[in-house]
Specification:
heterodimer; A: alpha+beta; Nuclear Transport Factor 2, Chain: A; 24% helix; 34% strand; disordered N terminus; B: alpha+beta; 28% helix; globular; NAD (chain B); 2 iron, 2 sulfur cluster binding (chain B)
């Protein structure tokens, strides 16, 4: 039952760097997808958000491609004149994951021993501003979106995070799989005690 | 605070702590004065400011400071606040430059913090009694130990070497295991906030392995299995305390690292064991990545094995900002460094499967004290199995067994002594034994 039961393929350092550079390079250069495809992509995003809100993590895990690269880089305050890029795959990150790493994280939740998720957190994940473009790879789409993610626990404990996602979705039988995801939070100091959550 | 005596709030013999020290704004203000404005505080790793003109900004207590490498190669630390109208002079977390110019009126300061120039300088030149040298950014004393840069605004503070004392001998287990020194992995600090008093995370790291057996059951299961592969007991394990700094550890060599769940990483660490043992001796080599945690008083902590180093920056009595970095030997292969980067992130960062469960504890340990009755019941720091036998032949105060509150009692003892001390001469320091060098 647990997603963590069998090990999933990881990424080598080179593969992860390649995936990161690909995500960094997504700026909507390709042609826009047609309305029907956009509608299907929106439906996928909405469903994904609902699975996360309802803690249906094993189903969500099924949406991840085996060659997944899932990344939330750190943001640092730097002057505009600074020649170092704002974001680099060599830097520390909040998430820098292969599918196997996601399985480890789900193992914590599925252990039923993570006291901080009991009673459970209540989530609302709003995904909006969806744009989708063709990529150089047939059947893979570049998808941009924004999100607001609200969490509440116990009584007064709440966190609202908003940000931007850049995804690469791959068309598979009957739907899509997530191949790449870059999550950009605007915060340089995470104004929350944890990221016990997926984006 | 009239009549306040910190030593009335801590019983470091049996082990109780008055909960008001985690809550009262007046006590917090006194901490900023008597702890943070007085002790040596960690400000940067030398690798963050390697080139001339490179800088990082950080905090010493609630004082914003700049750490900059000057043209003469010296690392300077000075207040990040213009003495003209008080505005911050640097808004970047890191960068490179020749000067820091205040946005308000354009006063410009050099990499040594000295006032260099300002618009309409002639107006000041013709002002009787005005001297440029009186209006630099206030400088701190700076000293390093094996790559770690510390600073203090106290002229009376003992030297950094005296302050760290025999703790240096143990520090070499993580700061000097390999040739070539260490570095922080790139990208700046991972920063996050917790609504907790800064002392809870500091006391957790100084000597609380006990919590791991319960708090981290869920986080350890995916890598270690339900009944765990890492053994924590009082055989072959210790707590050492020097001047309030503390380290609890066992002799497992890579017990902490095992919870990152990366077999390649463990294979690599194992391959280095003979060389590190030859360099440091078996006792300290076994500490390198073992089941352990440590705090350098008051708020700089690290975890061997994950090699996360972090400061718990106070932001009021009920709020703490965590700044974390990952430290690795410079000469380590890139692929292994990358595994530490991801491994430490996945365990000890805001998204880390272990750290996530810590913050929750510290927040509610703090917030519960809103209740008047609650905060007037003392907390228990009494665990002392077998009465804690002192171990002979090792530097510092060493007790057998990592499962105990020994270091935490010493941490709060140091806290109380410094809070009550009018001057540094009222703060007794442990006498160091001879400190031997890590490498032959």
């Amino acid at each position: 039952m647990s997603a963590a039961a069998q090990p999933e393929p990881g990424l080598s350092m080179e593969e992860a760097r390649h995936a990161a550079l690909r995500l960094m390079d997504l700026h909507g250069q390709g042609p826009e997808v047609d309305d029907l495809l956009l509608r299907r992509i929106e439906r996928f995003c909405n469903r994904e958000a609902r699975l996360l809100d309802e803690e249906r993590y094993d189903e969500w895990y099924g949406l991840l491609a085996d060659d997944l690269f899932y990344w939330m880089p750190l943001r640092e305050n730097r002057y505009r004149r600074d020649r170092r890029g704002d974001i680099s795959p060599d830097n520390m990150a909040f998430f820098d994951e292969s599918k196997a790493d996601i399985a480890l994280r789900l193992g914590r939740i599925n252990s039923n021993l993570a006291w901080t998720e009991d009673p459970p957190t209540r989530h609302v994940y709003i995904v909006s501003n969806i744009e989708a473009f063709e990529t150089a790879v047939d059947g893979e789409y570049e998808v941009h979106s924004t999100f607001i993610q609200y969490r509440n626990r116990v009584e007064h404990d709440e966190v609202t995070l908003c940000g931007r996602r850049r995804d690469i979705l791959r068309a598979v039988d009957g739907g899509f799989q997530i191949v790449g995801r870059m999550i950009l939070l605007p915060q340089s100091v995470l104004l929350a005690k944890n990221l016990s959550v997926f984006f | 605070m009239s009549g306040f005596r910190a030593s009335d709030h801590v019983d470091w013999e049996f082990g109780t702590v008055d909960r008001r020290i985690f809550w009262e704004p007046e006590i917090y203000q006194l901490e900023l004065e008597r702890i943070f404005a007085r002790t040596w505080l960690f400000v940067a790793h030398e690798s963050q400011v390697e080139e001339v003109g490179s800088f990082v900004t950080t905090y010493m207590g609630e004082d914003s400071v700049i750490v900059a490498r000057a043209a003469d190669g010296a690392i300077n630390v000075f207040l990040n606040s213009c003495p003209h109208r008080g505005n911050r002079v640097c808004f970047a977390s890191s960068g490179q430059g020749r000067q820091f110019t205040c946005n308000y009126h354009g006063w410009a300061f050099g990499l040594d913090g000295n006032l260099k120039k300002m618009p309409k300088m002639g107006l000041y030149k013709s002002t009787p009694g005005f001297r440029m040298e009186d209006w630099g950014l206030r400088k701190a004393r700076v000293a390093s130990y094996k790559g770690l840069v510390f600073a203090t605004f106290s002229e009376e503070a003992p030297s950094l070497d005296q302050w760290l004392g025999d703790f240096r001998w143990y520090l070499d287990a993580v700061l000097d295991p390999e040739d070539g020194g260490t570095e922080f992995l790139p990208g700046g600090a991972t920063r996050s906030v917790m609504n907790c008093n800064w002392k809870f995370p500091a006391d957790n790291f100084v000597g609380d392995i006990y919590h791991a057996l319960w708090t981290h059951l869920g986080g350890a299961e995916p890598t270690l299995g339900r009944h765990g592969g890492v053994i924590v007991d009082n055989k072959g394990s210790y707590q050492v305390s020097v001047n309030g700094h503390g380290w609890e550890f066992n002799d497992s060599f890579y017990g902490n690292a095992a919870t990152m769940g990366d077999r390649e990483l463990l294979r690599y660490m194992k391959s280095r064991q003979d060389a590190i043992t030859a360099r440091l001796g078996k006792f300290r080599a076994d500490m390198w990545g073992s089941v352990a945690s440590a705090t350098i008083f008051p708020n700089f902590s690290f975890l061997p094995g994950y090699f996360t180093f972090r400061t718990f920056q106070p932001k009021g009595p009920l709020k703490t900002e965590i700044h974390a970095w990952t430290l690795v030997p410079k000469d380590m292969p890139d692929d292994i460094k990358d595994r530490f980067r991801r491994g430490s992130m996945r365990t000890f960062s805001p998204s880390g499967i272990l750290e996530m469960d810590d913050g929750e504890n510290w927040e509610f340990s703090t917030q519960a004290n809103a209740g008047f009755v609650t905060r007037n019941q003392r907390l228990c720091y009494a665990m002392a199995p077998g009465g804690e036998l002192e171990t002979e032949g090792l530097p510092g105060h060493v007790t057998a067994g990592q499962l105990s509150d020994a270091n935490q009692r010493q941490f709060y003892r140091q806290w109380a002594v410094m809070m009550d001390a009018e001057t540094w001469s009222d703060v007794p320091l442990d006498t160091p034994a001879v400190v031997q060098e890590a490498a032959e």
